[in-house]
Each structure stands twice: as structure tokens, then as C-alpha cells.
Amino acid sequence: NAGVTQTPKFQVLKTGQSMTLQCAQDMNHNSMYWYRQDPGMGLRLIYYSASEGTTDKGEVPNGYNVSRLNKREFSLRLESAAPSQTSVYFCASSELGFGTEAFFGQGTRLTVV
Amino acid sequence: AQSVAQPEDQVNVAEGNPLTVKCTYSVSGNPYLFWYVQYPNRGLQFLLKYITGDNLVKGSYGFEAEFNKSQTSFHLKKPSALVSDSALYFCAVRGSYIPTFGRGTSLIVHP
After folding, report:
1. Which regions of chain B are under pLDDT 70?
2. If you placed Cys at B27, which of A70, A87, B2, B39 could pair as Cys (CB 3.0 to 4.6 Å)?
């Protein structure tokens, strides 16, 4: 099983450029999440989708948008990239129940210059 | 609101010695607690979880964690550390749709 697949794995953007990070899961999970990981900051939630058709802001949503395309796919868009968005981005998925663990993709390392 | 604290940025231990990585939590309602491990340039991998029942939870790779309700703690333990255990460890709590993660503790096991 592929689990959670993120594309691309690496990306370099110029300030002001836009891009979409793709995420797909094959575990039939209802919930999907986007986190960013920065040194000393741990994981911070950007957006999440509790179930297909819903999306909500997390802790650090500014500068990002998301689309829950279907149950499998949850994309993250940077409309106008800024150097502060240089980070490693992780997509995750889980079942709805609070006692269920999350499954993570391999991450996208994004550098904005 | 829910939160997790990992008070140590780094834990150093000699191979063969026991290890403990600390975690305390705050959540309203029943605590669902998790530990994850992250190896370099990889995503997080699930290690173990506490939902209910026995306070000592066993997980992957010989790790276990002890839930203590009165101290609101969920410390990760292993009786005998391996060099290959060196990684970044995250504690997480889930009292809603959103898992909340701690800042992570870097475990370094010295040969």
C-alpha cells in the first residue's frame, strides 16, 4: 500500500510565485491534514478536512488555501509565496475517531527565495 | 483547547541504557495520546497510543509508554536503547478532530 503520497518532494520558488502541493491517500480515511514543520516549532496545523466536503483553518492558515477534491485528495495552495513559507510540509490522514492515529506522507521540502 | 509539552529538546543516552522521553498534556474530556517517531528526511511514523485501559502501553520497536492521569503525563520509555533509536520523537494528543503535536524531542543514543 502506498499510504499517503505527496508531490512534489522538493520545490524551489521565487517570492510571489504560486504552487499547489498535492496529497493523496489510499486508506479510505475521512480526515486529512496539512502541517508545516519548522526547526524548534514542531508541527503546526495549517488546514484540515474532517471529512469530504469540509475544510477548516488550523493554527497557521494565512497565505494558504486548500481543496478537498474528493475523499482521497487534499491539496494545499500557496497563492503568492513568501520566504516565511520556507518549510517542510506534511500531509496526513486519519479516521474520524479521536482514538485513531494519523498516517503521514514523506513531506515536501519547499524553499522560497 | 488541547496542548502537549515536551520539556526536553534533546535526550542523550548510552546504548544499552534505559531511556525516557517526557510528555505532559492538557485536554478536556478523555485524553487520546500518541507517540510518533521521525527519522531524517522522513514523515512521522506511529509508535503507540493510549485510549483507555492499562496505563502501560506497548508499541513498535520495543517502546512503551506510561499514562499517568494524576500527573497528566505520557512518558515514552524503552528498557535498553539502541543507536538506531536515534531520531526525533513527537507526543500528540487528540481530544477533537485535530491531533495536536508537541515540539519534538531529539533522542541521541551514543555507542
Report:
1. none
2. B2
Please report, rounded to a whole number, the percentage of residues in chain A having pLDDT higher than 90: 85
* B110/B13 Cα distance (integer angstroms): 6
Mean pLDDT of A9-26: 97
Q: Which residue type, as a one-letter code, is found at position A75?
A: S
Closest CA to B30 of B88, B95, B76: B95
Concatenated DSSP letters for chain B?
A: --EEE---SEEEEETTS-EEE--EEE-SSS-EEEEEEE-TTS-EEEEEEE-SS-SEEE-GGG-EEEEETTTTEEEEEESS--GGG-EEEEEEEESSSSEEE---EEEEEE-
Model pLDDT for residues A26-51, shown as the tens digit of each residue: 999 999 999 999 988 889 999 999 99
Query: Considering only residues 51 to 90 of chain B, which have any Cβ-Cβ distance to chain A shorter than 8 Å?
Result: 51, 90
Q: Pick A99's closest partner by Cβ from B45, B49, B103.
A: B49
Taking CB atoms and an 8 Å limit, are B32 and A41 in contact across chains?
no
List, in order, residues 6 or more apart from B107 with CB less than 8 Å away.
Answer: B10, B11, B13, B19, B21, B81, B85, B86, B87, B88, B89
**Tens digits of residue pLDDT in A76-105:** 999 999 999 999 999 999 987 778 899 999
Give me the amino acid identity at B30: N
Buried b (16+ CB within 10 A) or exposed e, A79-100: eebeeebbbbbbbbbbeeebeb
